[in-house]
Specification:
The protein has about 450 residues and is of the alpha/beta class. It is built from 14 helices and 15 strands.
């Protein structure tokens, strides 16, 4: 310590070890003690345990980082998703016009795959920031994991063996089924990349009680009853410096072009969004283990069935007024809905929608409206149309998430909503659901 030998006071933080072997962080101040002649004869230290404060600082930095990523994701999501809606929609329309054997379909499939990967990047950002649209269901985690085994085996390849040990009497959890798929796909892709050649991945579930003693050493943990999902691999492992950064967005140890750095950040965001936490451990050459804790459902609620994917439901001649200021999105919605058997009225502004509705002598069964438009927003448009047509049902769409719309005061929670970009199948199902359901007021 050059500062001390120069006769000055040193201030900083130090890591010390307690008698029980655990580490703690001290805020230290060390000053030289001089004799009458001014010679340094000793040093005096004042130390304060700041372990708890350091953990809170780390949590605050992580929260600030998540908020920054959330703002980034929300800022690009709207325009980016409108553009992707155009790309994906026109590709789907073109494919539907071509015979199955047409050579151009191969290239259109490549465009569609690239667009879907682009959508996934946006959704991963939103998942990390906990702004992803979700539809949680009470589920049996063992069943959800079992349903993913075949895709997971295809993901990791033949050289890696998978051992699955479902726990007995595992309690129910509540989360979106698609998020289970995201968690497993990202963890298994990470494990696959960590294994050179032949290896193994072990996965198991069980119930776990987290107490205050455990939480003292794990800042993200909260005492309670959890379902524990453990995924372990025997890959290359990580040192502690790398391990400390694995949930950071855009952090990756892979070569350029081989990863976005969003996989584990996505897992982290999903787990936090569902009030859980993750414990990761690893050593170089000894593999990596992820322990994911998801809160148990408080009551023995029944497992909610996941609907099977039947054929896209058709319209029955109902009239839909589409209000959308983006030309591409408006045209695509028109083609999708017309092809499904609906009568479509198109408006490029809210004012045009009011004029069209005023001139239309028949029923208008549904308003499909963008949320943010010039002049007035979608909610205001729905309110004005609803005053003359009280039976009008409303479905809002946006490149932003429903959560962002609600926070801006543009949409109440629980309103009928579909996020862009969407396919013909997705809008067909959502429109049918709204038309056949109870009327949802925009109030």
């Amino acid at each position: 310590m050059g500062v001390l030998t120069a006769g000055e006071v040193w201030r900083g933080r130090m890591i010390n070890r307690r008698k029980d072997g655990t580490f703690y962080e001290d805020d230290a101040s060390i000053a030289p003690v001089r004799d009458a002649a001014g010679k340094i004869v000793n040093y005096v230290a004042a130390m304060r345990d700041v372990t708890h404060e350091a953990r809170l600082e780390k949590q605050l930095r992580q929260a600030q980082k998540m908020e920054a990523v959330g703002r980034l994701a929300g800022g690009v999501a709207h325009d980016f998703n409108n553009l992707l809606m155009g790309i994906m929609g026109y590709v789907e329309l073109c494919r539907n016009e071509l015979p199955l054997t047409h050579p151009i379909r191969h290239y259109l499939d490549k465009v569609a795959d690239a667009a879907k990967r682009s959508v996934n990047i946006t959704r991963q950002l939103l998942a990390f920031a906990r702004k992803q649209d979700i539809a949680p269901k009470v589920m049996d985690l063992n069943t959800a994991v079992s349903d993913m085994l075949n895709p997971l085996r295809q993901l990791i390849g033949e050289g890696i063996s998978l051992t699955w040990r479902p726990g007995d009497g595992v309690k129910r959890v509540r989360l979106d089924p698609s998020q289970v798929d995201q968690i497993l796909a990202n963890l298994f892709a990470n494990a696959r990349d960590a294994i050179a050649g032949v290896g193994k991945i072990d996965m198991e579930t069980g119930n776990s009680i987290v107490d205050a003693e455990y939480c003292a050493g794990h800042p993200d943990a909260i005492p309670g009853a959890y379902v524990l999902l453990t995924v372990s691999d025997d890959g290359c492992g990580m040192d502690q410096e790398t391990l400390a950064q694995i949930f950071e967005p855009f952090f990756t140890t892979k070569d350029i072009g081989k990863g976005t750095g969003l996989g584990l950040a996505t897992v982290y965001g999903i787990v936090k969004q569902n009030n859980g936490f993750i414990d990761a451990s690893s050593e170089p050459g000894k593999g990596t283990t992820f322990k994911i804790y998801l809160p148990q459902v408080a009551t023995e609620a029944a497992v909610e069935p996941i609907a099977s994917r039947a054929e896209t439901p058709k319209g029955r001649g109902e009239t839909i007024l589409v209000a959308e200021d983006n030309d591409s999105v408006r045209e695509i919605c028109s083609h999708f809905l017309d092809g499904l058997g609906y009568r479509v009225l198109l408006a490029e502004t809210p004012e045009a929608a009011l004029q069209i509705a005023g001139r239309h002598s028949g029923d208008i069964d549904l308003l499909l409206s963008d949320v943010v438009m010039p002049g007035m927003d979608g909610r205001q448009l729905a309110e004005r149309l609803g005053s003359d047509r009280p039976c009008l049902k409303v479905l809002f769409m946006s490149g932003h998430t429903a959560d962002v719309m609600a926070k801006r005061g543009l949409l109440p929670q629980g309103i009928n909503f579909i996020a862009k970009p969407f396919s013909c199948d997705e809008i067909g199902r959502k429109v049918r659901e709204v038309l056949e359901g109870a009327n949802a007021s925009p109030e």
